[in-house]
């Protein structure tokens, strides 16, 4: 009985966490460059139950022998194992702003060991932990003329340096080169992650490596191609209709576990108040 309480409670906790994840995806459905989180729910290892018994062996002294009769497996609950960002390309939206620059995937190699498709990101200067990475190309110029993202982090060029411009009268080519009066002044930095699932997702659509090391430049990586489109931003890749359906499914699963918990509670109440009553 008490084991059933634990199993049901684990199911409710898993569905609650899944609901929180899906709600966060829905809240960021209009955030440029946001990558939807995905969850995987797994079960704890099952327990094998058996019943101990004894039987008399037909011998002169009637020796008793013990045996174990297999009853079956018992589930021990579920848990949300991990969250993984879905890094598929989002749709492009035209803004006609020179500081909005969309990063468009081209050819991205697949890791032979893990089967993961690589990903490219803009390079940002993190104020505390080295570099950060983003797909959000909704950039702006700060008062000093430095190219920054929406949170004020500096956008880095291919050499790891900040990019300073006089004003927003500049042109960005498909290969990331920034031209002012037809003269190239910088190339927007882009990094390549061969195993993007190993990146840590931070707030505001930022990613960082788990060990704090910087990702290699995508310009110098073989078989990697991409392009940039000025005056556009990459929209979130959240599928609002699918997310709403998954939210309803998670809510109903939570509600079903809740009803089972109520049934267990009623059974315990009956056992205490009626079965254990002394007449």
From TrEMBL:
InterPro entries given in the database record: Flag_bb_rod_N (IPR001444), Flagellar_basal_body_rod_CS (IPR019776), Flagellar_FlgE/F/G (IPR020013), Flg_bb/hook_C_dom (IPR010930), FlgE/F/G-like (IPR037925), LlgE_F_G-like_D1 (IPR053967)
Domain Flagellar basal-body/hook protein C-terminal: 229-273
Keyword match 4Fe-4S: no
Keyword field: Bacterial flagellum, Cell projection, Cilium, Flagellum
Flagellar hook protein FlgE/F/G-like D1 domain residues: 118-179
Domain Flagellar basal body rod protein N-terminal, residue spans: 7-35
GO CC terms: bacterial-type flagellum basal body
Keyword Chloroplast appears in the UniProt entry: no
Localisation: Bacterial flagellum basal body
Gene Ontology terms: biological process: bacterial-type flagellum-dependent swarming motility
Pfam families: Flg_bb_rod (PF00460), Flg_bbr_C (PF06429), LlgE_F_G_D1 (PF22692)
Family: Belongs to the flagella basal body rod proteins family.
Name of the protein described by the UniProt record: Flagellar hook-basal body protein
Source organism of the structure: Psychrobacillus soli
